[in-house]
Amino acid sequence: MRQFFSRFSRRTWIIIGVVAVILLFVGISFARPNEEVTFQTLLAERGDLAAYVGATGSVRAKQTATLTWQTNGIVGDVNAEIGERVEQGTIIANLDKATLSQNIILAEADLFSAQKALDELLQSNTALYEAEKAVDKAEESYQKAYNWRIELNGKIDIKEAYYDQFGNLKIKEYKGKASEETIADAERDLALAESKLEDARRAYERLLQGPDSDEVASARARVAAAEATLNLSKLIAPFNGTITQASSVIGDQVVPGKVGFRVDDLSSLLVDVQVSEVDINRVALGQTATLSFDAILGKVYNGEVVAVGQAGDTIQGVVSFTVTVELTDADEQVKPGMTAAVNVIVEEVKDTLLVPNRAVRLVDGDRVVYILRDGVPTPIKITLGASSDTMSVLASGDIKEGDEIILNPPAFNGGPFGGG
Q1: Of 89, 54, 19, nearest to 387 (Cα)?
Q2: Do 200 and 280 fall into the same domain?
Q3: Closest C-alpha among 298, 417, 302, 310 to residue 369
Q4: To 5 degrees, how large is the angle CA 384–CA 387–CA 380?
Q5: Are 403 and 309 in a shared domain?
Q6: What are phi and psi of 28, to 5 degrees?
Q7: Which of 81, 118, 316, 354 might form a disulfide with 391, Cβ 3.0–4.6 angstroms?
Q8: Structural domain of residue 153, as residue ranges?
């Protein structure tokens, strides 16, 4: 017997073994009874549905300011640190006076004198009384010049002396107009007096305006110019906010343009998202939204649409519009710069019959859902309304509450919504 088996080569034995395995498998297959197809089903039921437009964006503060130094010097004082709230006008940091340029140092003296002059204008009545007195004097000068000019119209200008027959000296006067030169001088004097009177009246009227006068406006401009020069050595909070970045410490040598601090108004946090032109007309002011963050696991925040862009931007051939969502329940975990997934709820439907999206197929151009009736899959032609990621509103179709909707109908009928 051993000699008989030794006549076959190793290759022959391998072929025999493969054939035997195939025959065994085929035999088992014929011997096994046909298995029934198992369908996954879900009962059709009523519920609420929220349709939304989704996009991603970054959190930003309502206001943000990066404060940079405007002159050379060494940091002398720092009055705030990261996380600290500051009020508008707070001096966050300033430079050591000894390291400032001469024009900035002198600006402090200019500010003092300009402020003093402004205070005098606003608080003292001396200038007003002096202006009133100047008007009286100008009116007096004008009246004299006017009277003299009128008098020249009938002025006796020619006199002649002679002796009568008795030897007495007589003066003969002839009435007539004054010379042209005399009249011209009088008219110039009158015009000058009138001009001075008008100037005095205008100055008086300006002072009567008080804080709205030109003199006060000029004094305020001098104060503002001195303050602007002096503020080159300071970093000042432009609005109420929180210090979110700090790059300057006491002793730092700074140059113009060097960043010192960043201030953010965290009282309101916003997210700007880009919405496709296909969806933008579904988005409106006041719509609610949900927001989630990769950096904050397991928590969903709420928001509201506060701005909808009216002009689109084209990026790589795609037109999109900027939509701004404000967080309505932000906490200390949400920080500017974080990436947010935003879902703007554009439509809400209450108590309606819903069908799962995964059960919908496209058959001969029609949307179809298969219902399990008496154990047999039955196709039902349907029309859908609003949709979310998982469910859609049944707009029409012979499906009733409690029907068994097949989630995994035969694959040859097409995938969900016509997919493969």
Answers
A1: 54
A2: no
A3: 417
A4: 30
A5: yes
A6: -65, -40
A7: 354
A8: 122-225
Q: Are residues 402 and 297 in the same domain?
A: yes
Model's pTM, two decimal places?
0.56
Statement to judge: residues 277 and 405 lie in one domain? yes
Compute the distance between CA of residue 342 and CA of residue 303 in angstroms, rounded to an integer. Answer: 9
Same domain, 273 and 381: yes
Query: From CA 324, how far away is CA 308, in angstroms rounded?
Result: 6
Domain total of the chain: 4
Per-residue pLDDT tens, the chain, 420 aa: give them: 444 445 556 656 556 665 565 555 545 444 444 445 688 888 888 888 878 888 999 999 999 999 999 999 999 999 999 999 999 999 999 999 889 888 888 877 787 887 787 776 666 566 667 787 888 888 888 888 888 888 777 665 555 555 566 655 565 554 556 677 877 888 888 888 889 888 888 877 766 655 556 667 777 788 888 888 888 999 999 999 999 999 999 999 999 999 999 999 999 999 999 999 988 998 999 999 999 999 999 899 999 999 999 999 988 888 999 999 999 999 999 999 999 999 998 887 888 888 888 889 988 888 999 998 888 888 999 998 877 778 888 888 888 888 889 888 876 444 444 443
Q: Would residue 106 count as lying in a domain?
A: no
Are residue 210 and residue 138 in the same domain, yes or no? yes
